[in-house]
What does this fold into?
Amino acid sequence: MISNEYIAKIEGHGSLTVNWDNNSVKLNIHEGERLFEGILVGRTAEEAHWITPRICGVCPIAHNLASLYAVEDAYGIKVSEGVKLLRKLMICGQMIQSHVLHLFFLVLPDYIGIDRGTELAKKKPASFKKALSLKELGDEIAHVVAGRNVHPVKSTVGGFHQAPTKKMLEDLLAKLVQTEKNAEWTVKVFSELKYPEIRVDLELVAQSGDKIVSNAGKEVLIKDYKKNIEEELRDYSTAKFGKFQGREMFVGALARLAVSPPSELGGETAKLTAKLNFQNPFHNNIAQAIEILQYHKQAHEIIEKLLNMTLDVAAKDGPSQSEGPSFAGVGIGAVEAPRGGLYHEMHFDPGQEQRITYANIITPTVQNLTSIEKSASALLEQIQGSNQERQRLLNMLVRAYDPCITCSVH
Amino acid sequence: MINNKPRIAIYDFTDCEGCETKLVSLREKLLLLEKKVDIVNWRLGQEYFEAGPYDITIIEGAPITRHEVDLLKELRENSKILIALGACAALGGIPAIMPEKDRKYWYEKIYTSQYAPRGIDAVPLSAYVKVDFSIHGCPIDENEAVRAVEELLAGKTPSYRGYSVCFECKQAGNPCRLLENKPCLGPITQGGCGAICVSGGSPCYGCFGIRDEANIPALRKILEKFADEKEIERYFSMFHSRTEDFNKNKEK
It folds into this structure.
């Protein structure tokens, strides 16, 4: 019973069943069901963004914002420019936190011959210090804007309970200036690792504006997410397996760079982005490193804007407007979370209590599970070697996707 | 009670893994702590694995599946000290909002009736085994985790903060929510969090656990002045619907 039966260094509990004869792989998901969509029913509009971050402690900000967007959509609540910018800044912090944790603590050990991320401190102390400076930065952004690095306490329906002070933003800006070269260094480190070369026919999918867009040229509206992202049951998994219009999909950093290459990146990084192999899931690690730099630059720009404006973050009209004409009763909140597109849908009863009557949540990892199996089969077909070595590569492949199994079984 | 360099196992049952994320946020302090112990089993952090017995087993998350319940009992037998990390392990946490009797209905709604569920119920570790100490919070305060481990390393039994969240809330200079007719569970909740939620403008839902000698009926009386029964219930049920302390007090 006390055994190492699960894949190490991923969030949540998964294992692989490999059929070496026909190169097929099953990804077993063992997490217990928490039934969040049931927990939410009966709770109120004001509690949703408190409850859903607890789906995932690695990307709680993404869930917090998706719930706020869903509630605001249902109640027709508009927010100020300052609130929009602060929420964007929260996402910058979230991306940096999550990608740094994944790349340095869960991925890098595979490539440099160590086991635990902290062993880097002994092997390459200067590198470890740089990695930690970025982890600290991501945590600090979350702390300044959301009030805590895990599970926000300052964000609320319509705005924020409190805005960061000018001093807090200035200190954050100073930290950003100090760490920019470390973000650039991260791109260099992860673009120079030797990744297994595989080629998988995957559809890369990401949100763009009010649409869901794929690199195969498909475009659908976010409000039609449920029609286009289908979820299936598998008897070996407590998570559902997602597909985009019937096909295996890939969501996350690599898909975002494929669908909408960022404008912030100049020079070498832009060239590197153009050279990514979008059909090799291992390149998701390079894409995450590029995104650390992208969101680092974006955070810098946002803070400069915030410092030049008078911040008004108080909620203008709370969900007490439920009787008013703007009440739609149904809201959808969509966010590009670190691991890909996240969707929260909530329905509310029209009464004063603002109770949730229905909730549906589709997480990024649910969308990636089907394609992890497909990529695993492709790896076995395309890479020869001992089964032991290929098992190791399969585990690395799963890690490259940065699955959050915790999220997938919400 | 424990060796100089104790063998530690860190487990996560069903949960968000946010408390482990908090441990990683310790950064340099995590390195210092690591030097004093031997982490021989930590699935999230390393491939390296040694089977038990362990000097200290730290468990995050709620035991929801049969497999987790069996493993929990085995870990208890194989651990000198068993520590609950965070609200899911210590109190049942957010997953425990779901009553056992409603699970069947929601399995069918969420997964269809074709689905064979694995979960039994979401309850704290203490529903199945003896827990030696709880590092509270949703998420934990990482410095409280350091304090608990350091006290263990010094051969002491870690102690709980002997005051409520109100004490830290006053220190933080926050106006009292109750005086503003806003619900708050601070008076009955153990300190240690630094009143971080109230300082950020959110309510206190009591994730640090109910403190010794908490007067729950008295707090209820105050809440009843401005909140109805349903609203009060919602506050208590965020983290406490399944804790023994709370349900015992409720009946008084």
